[in-house]
Amino acid sequence: MSLSGQAAVTGIGETDYRRDAGGRSVLRLQLEASLAAIADAGLAPREIDGIVLPMGTGGTVAEDFVTNLGIPDLRLSTTTPLGGAGAVAAVQCAVAAVAAGLCRHVLLPLGRTGRTGSRIGARIHQMPQFRTVGEFEAPAGALAPAQYYAPMARRHMELYGTTSRQLAEIAVTTRRHAILNGNASMTRPMSIEDHQASRLIADPLRLLDCSLESDGAAAVVVSAADIARDMPRPRVLVTGVAEGHPDSPSAITQRPDMTRLGLAKAAPRAFAMAGVTPADIQVAEIYDCFTYIVLCQIEDLGFCAKGEGGAFVEGGALGLGGRLPVNTHGGLLSQSHMAGMNHVIELVRQLRGEAGAAQVEGARLGLVTGYGDLGDGTVAIMARG
Amino acid sequence: MTEMPRKPVPEPGPETKPYWDGLAEGRLLLQRCAGCGRIRHYPRPLCDACHSFEADWVPASGEARVHGWTVAHHPYHPAFRAELPYTLVTADLPEGVRLVAQLRDAGPEALRLGAVLRIGIEDNGEGQALPVLRLAGG
User: Fewer CB atoms inside 10 A, N or C side of chain A?
Assistant: First the structure.
């Protein structure tokens, strides 16, 4: 049985990303987003019968949602601890659950106080996924995701001639999209020169190559496709979905090819499941914890060959009207770091035709990716229908 | 008086302790599968090729080549602030595994993929022995 077309994203909900949480707890934020998503789906909270928590951030558990939402008969509770790949992994998990008949409506809540609470950069060494690098690389001074990922970018530059100005193209385009979005943290225009003048964090990555640390929450509801036909919003079907883990998943250092992510394994499976090719994709929401990670995923998705990502992103190619509009909401770089759940939501908005000033005209087919921890990759292909 | 935060230290487990003990004695040891002879790094319980739990430890040749690098500019940890900027090199060892260590006696502008390095061992200033890398002939 293929999962293609078995489930739809039927509800989306977000908090305000423009300011900090003002003392609201992570659970409170996640409940706000969940209620918004459930209402968007035209459901009552009691109709939720599955919960997939995409990542451990904030420490909330399914029991919190049962208790606060008043869910009488939860039939599935699970987590997808793949860091930033977790949101799309949760979509895969939810699609499988409804396709198997375990659940009808699965809630996927994600939220954090990354700005006012525990800093994202400081939290990672408590995570078991980072245990190996914590023992063998942190003592040398490799302490944060930027420092673990930067050597991948450096090697890409040395092998293929990729430049910092090409990475800047990604940051600048993403900022331009955030400015079009009414719910983005960063709304000041950015130029290539602004990017080039921003301070080095982990060379070759500069400050404006790095994503935000944000407060907020985002949630979606995934429902069985046949039920979704009678729900209020335009139906957005998940037609392809896959998860991929890189070689040497606990240490990028030991990876045979440091420029190849887990997504390179997942993408061909997702495209085959959906029966489409990269050339068919009209809009792509690509996980952007760092600019380089976007460039690498564009290659691993098959939009261009390995090494050609730098040339691919030049000249505004990722902007509205470009060859592949990417991160039309402003992404983690400029909207909010909701670990990719905001990317899932933006893809649904685009395919519903509800993306406002950032609407890709006539978008009916798009994809969303996740990138997590030390290279886990996920991708979902969705279609209006 | 506020105490200066200390640098992160390894918390070795049974499978990794010989590696750290070796560094403390001035030797970079690599874990070798006693079943199939494959060198593996970072140290771990099981050989993923032959699934033997048995392993011994062999000294590294001391040579390496540049595979990638980054220069740390941001103080993610206060104990490293005084050392900024420092260069972290990912290096290929002829044994088939890689090492991450700080570069000594040269800046990143001297680095090229494949450049030959020599492995040294140094105290990190707080009593922890760590490998470091120098360009060969530099």
Answer: N
**Chain B residues within 8 Å of chain A (Cβ atoms):** 7-12, 16, 41-42, 67-74, 76-77, 80, 83, 85-86, 88, 90, 97-102, 108, 112-113, 124, 128, 130-131
> Given B7, B80, B98, which is nearest A254 (Cβ)?
B98
Q: Give, in order, the Cα–Cα distances in Å from A167 to each of A174, A288, A310, A311.
A: 11, 11, 7, 10
Alpha-carbon distance of A139 to A147, in angstroms, equals 13
Fold (CATH) for B61-138: OB fold (Dihydrolipoamide Acetyltransferase, E2P) (2.40.50)
Tell me, yes or no, if the pTM score tops 0.95. yes
> Contacts of residue A203 in chain B, CB cutoff 8 Å?
70-73, 85, 108
Query: What 3-state DSSP class applies to A70?
Result: coil
Backbone angles phi, psi at A151, to 5 degrees: -60, -30
- Give residue limits of the domains in chain B: 9-59, 61-138
CA torsion angle for A254, A260, A262, A268 (degrees, to 10)?
A: -150
In CATH, A7-118+212-384 is 3.40.50.960: no
DSSP code of B76? S
For B81, the closest chain A residue by CA position comes to A141
Q: Hey, are the CB atoms on B68 and A201 less than 8 Å from each other?
A: no
Which residues are bridge partners to B103 per DSSP?
B133
Three-state secondary-structure class, residue A372: strand
Q: Which of B42, B74, B128 sits opposite A139 (nearest CB)?
A: B128
What pLDDT does A128 receive?
A: 85
**What are the pLDDT tens digits along chain B (138 aa)?**
467 789 999 999 999 999 999 999 999 999 999 999 999 999 999 999 999 999 999 999 999 999 999 999 999 999 999 999 999 999 999 999 999 999 999 999 999 999 999 999 999 999 999 999 999 986
Local structure of B46: helix, strand or coil: coil
Q: Which residues of B touch A161 (CB under 8 A)?
A: none
Q: Is the dihedral of CA A174, A176, A181, A182 positive or negative?
A: positive
Strand ranges in chain B using DSSP code E only, listed in sequence order? 29-33, 39-40, 55-59, 63-72, 86-92, 98-103, 116-123, 129-135
Q: Where are the domains of chain A?
A: 7-118+212-384
Residues 6+ apart with CB under 8 A from A51: A62, A65, A66, A71, A74, A76, A77, A78, A106, A107, A108, A109
**ipTM above 0.90 for this complex:** yes
